[in-house]
């Protein structure tokens, strides 16, 4: 048995600009300690997101050349439609410029004022689109801030007993349940098929539609194959198809498991609802056979969706995330373990234990990683989730930093470097202070907030 290697040869390279600590100190100050204000050219290892950051394959670049740019009825649309139907079994496929546009189109048709939408974990834009349409969001993950650090395997699950309770008392107000696979705000953890099946059964009983936020459905399917005995001999696409069979439709950001740089879609079973949605699609995105995308982009998504189902790719992909996780554990850092599909979630308080929650230890860790190593990461803690509807601030009690790994972009030496920088920051924790907010917007504040050191 020889050691494993990344199953890709590099064909085009992008030079990483190196910076000095002194330069990064200035960059960080000028960015108001907010990673979103830093220019990508000033970042050495960019782990801000796995969204739209994948390296395209030679097959995708070739498909791009085939892109057909007719306004109506492009063959590129039909290729995308065929692929999405093959994977999901949903007949109604509406391309959108990215995932949140699919959410917008669906939710403006299914959410009424005062309705409740339930999830194992709403991504920030997904929840915001429900609220934008007058709805109320309820997150009922199965994990708590205590249990997320246990070694349980499907910590992305929805809390089934809470769901049943909510539907018994409130089913007439619940407009839908949406299952996020994998659970991005819940440590990137997978959802089991058993949990999906149970959720679907409860939803059917109360006549509430179940949708999937399917961004990382291929990675989730891989975990089902690895962890759930009865799926060990099933292919990834068979698992994905079974999962989608339990739902009424999905929203998708093809910037993740579509291995594309932009794009998404809404796929539905119900043709009546699809007819309604298409009116909004035309208004907000574009004609139904391009919906905000060029033919070229639809081609790259159609190919990328199939490549993401390849088991060799998934093994490498999820293995890389796990590898970084193991290195961090060796360095004495607490992470959500076993790691999920797209990112390692670090407990920032295990690196910077002296910073209280409302000093935003996750933001402080992101700052330290950038300062010492030019690494860009993303806080999922009190800055992202601490603002209450009444304007007050509440510590969420779980201060995570997400090290999100772009697909097919970095290799093992980059991962080792990231772990080395973490170890340095942990060993010099006293050098880093908490932060306070000097300016914030009213919605989705983390994108544009300005912070200063305390
Ligand atoms: N749902 C989930 C679970 C997501 O993670 C994202 C995006 C979206 C929906 C929205 O998709 O960006 O194409 O509009 N997540 C990225 C991230 C931005 O960094 O996790 P989009």
Automatic annotation (TrEMBL):
Q: Which residues form the Aromatic amino acid beta-eliminating lyase/threonine aldolase domain?
A: 46-420
Necessary cofactors: pyridoxal 5'-phosphate
Q: Pfam families this protein is in?
A: Beta_elim_lyase
- What keywords is this UniProt entry annotated with? Lyase, Pyridoxal phosphate
Q: Which family does it belong to?
A: Belongs to the beta-eliminating lyase family.
Q: What's this protein's name?
A: Probable beta-eliminating lyase-like
The upper taxonomy is:
Eukaryota, Metazoa, Hemichordata, Enteropneusta, Harrimaniidae
Provide the gene name from the record.
LOC100378234
């Amino acid at each position: 048995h020889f050691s494993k290697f990344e199953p890709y040869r590099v064909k085009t390279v992008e030079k990483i600009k190196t910076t000095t600590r002194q330069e990064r100190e200035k960059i960080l100050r000028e960015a108001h300690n907010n990673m979103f204000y830093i220019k990508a050219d000033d970042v050495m290892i960019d782990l801000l997101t796995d969204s739209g950051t994948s390296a395209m394959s030679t097959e995708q670049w070739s498909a791009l050349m085939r892109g057909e740019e007719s306004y109506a009825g492009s063959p590129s649309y039909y290729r995308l439609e065929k692929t999405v139907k093959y994977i999901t079994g949903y007949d109604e496929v509406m391309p959108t410029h990215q995932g949140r546009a699919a959410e917008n189109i669906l939710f403006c048709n299914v959410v009424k004022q005062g309705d409740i939408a339930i999830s194992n974990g709403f991504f920030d834009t997904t929840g915001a689109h429900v609220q934008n349409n007058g709805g109320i969001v309820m997150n009922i993950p199965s994990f708590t801030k205590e249990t997320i650090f246990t070694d349980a395997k499907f910590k992305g699950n929805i809390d089934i007993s809470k769901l049943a309770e909510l539907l018994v008392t409130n089913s007439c107000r619940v407009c839908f349940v949406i299952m996020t696979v994998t659970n991005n705000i819940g440590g990137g953890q997978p959802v089991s098929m058993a949990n999906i099946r149970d959720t679907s059964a409860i939803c059917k009983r109360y006549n509430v539609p179940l949708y999937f936020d399917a961004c990382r459905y291929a990675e989730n399917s891989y975990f089902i194959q690895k962890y759930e005995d009865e799926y060990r001999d099933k292919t990834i696409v068979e698992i994905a198809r079974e999962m989608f069979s339990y739902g009424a439709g999905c929203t998708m950001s093809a910037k993740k498991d579509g291995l594309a740089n932009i794009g998404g879609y809404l796929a539905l079973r119900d043709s009546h609802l699809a007819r309604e949605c298409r009116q909004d699609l035309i208004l907000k995105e574009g004609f139904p056979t391009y919906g905000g995308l060029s033919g070229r982009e639809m081609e790259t998504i159609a190919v990328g969706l199939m490549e993401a189902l390849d088991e060799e790719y998934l093994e490498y992909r999820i293995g890389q995330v796990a590898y970084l996780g193991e290195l961090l554990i060796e360095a004495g850092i607490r992470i959500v373990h076993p790691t999920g599909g797209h990112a390692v979630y670090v407990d920032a308080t295990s690196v910077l234990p002296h910073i209280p929650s409302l000093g935003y230890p996750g933001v402080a860790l992101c700052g330290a990683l950038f300062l010492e190593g030019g690494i860009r990461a993303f806080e999922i803690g009190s800055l992202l989730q601490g603002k209450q509807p009444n304007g007050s601030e509440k510590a969420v009690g779980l201060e995570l930093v997400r090290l999100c790994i772009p697909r097919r972009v970095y290799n093992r030496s980059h991962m080792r470097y990231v772990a080395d920088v973490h170890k340095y920051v942990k060993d010099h924790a006293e050098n880093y202070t908490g932060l306070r907010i000097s300016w914030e917007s009213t919605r989705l504040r983390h994108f544009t907030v300005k912070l200063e050191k305390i």
